[in-house]
Write a structure and sequence with these properties.
Strand order of the largest sheet: 3-2-5-6
Largest sheet: 4 strands, antiparallel
Structural class: alpha+beta
Number of strands: 16
Strand content: 35-45%
Radius of gyration: 29 Å
Order of helices and strands: HEEEEEEEEEHHEEEEEEHE
Number of helices: 4
Shape: elongated
Helix content: 10-25%
Distance between the termini: 95 Å
Number of domains: 2
Length: 229
């Protein structure tokens, strides 16, 4: 009986060791977002994240992740010294993919992203030809709308004075013909709307130009607050 118990224990321990060794031969691959194609040293694996790959061996390997709408993620994975003193690959690797804005917005192709709006070539850039929906409304309506450009790169894109549009509700389609603006630097530029109506508090909202270009819309709704006596 004792011999049978020892034999069972030895088999169980042996199975545990095999599972441990087997687990060490696998590496968990994750990505943010998921469902990215996995490449090892440039070779497709026909796997998508989250998944597990076989330990490719060697001192290092290149892990590549591809997903439509995102830049390819590449990382050199190198064996590192463990507590046991052995050098092993990490048991789990996670990569965060960067969205490729040009893949999502065909109206601003990558080759045109650096075209600058200027007086020398008015209306000719892809940026100026990208039509944006502008919409501003308020409750109650009839408020005067003012807008201006606010830039964190004034040496390139200048801040502007307030310009009167009309009273709410306001809606039209128009481009961003802001001098010095490119798609690349538009993240550093904002459009500010100011709403003014007699008897109500003045309100202001700001919108990032890059976000407006990507969404092809810049819109705002103001709930006006009566002035206290």
């Amino acid at each position: 009986m004792k011999r049978l118990f020892l034999l069972s224990l030895a088999i169980a321990f042996s199975g545990l060791m095999l599972n441990t060794v087997s687990a060490q031969k696998r590496i968990v691959i994750n990505s943010e977002p998921s469902d990215a194609e996995v490449f090892i040293n440039g070779v497709p694996t026909n796997l998508k994240t989250p998944t597990m790959i076989k330990n490719p061996g060697g001192k290092s390997f290149t892990l590549g992740l591809k997903k439509n709408g995102y830049d390819e993620g590449k990382v050199l994975v190198v064996k590192q010294k463990q507590f046991s003193g052995k050098k092993e690959y990490p048991a789990e690797i996670t990569q965060r993919l960067v969205r490729n804005v040009y893949a999502q917005d065909p109206t601003i192709p990558s080759g045109a992203a650096s075209e600058m709006v200027s007086r020398d070539n008015p209306g000719k850039t892809t940026l100026e030809q990208a039509i944006i929906r502008w919409a501003v409304d308020s409750d109650p309506q009839g408020a005067r709308i003012f807008y201006r450009v606010i830039s964190s790169i004034p040496a390139v894109v200048k801040n502007t004075n307030e310009t009167y549009l009309q009273t709410t509700p306001y809606e039209e389609t128009r481009p961003f013909n802001i001098l010095g603006l490119t798609y690349e630097n538009s993240r550093d530029v904002q459009i500010e709307f100011k709403i003014v109506k007699d008897g109500y508090e003045t309100q202001v909202k700001r919108f990032n130009v890059r976000q407006a270009l990507d969404q092809q819309e810049i819109s705002a709704f103001f709930v006006l607050v009566k002035k206290s006596n």
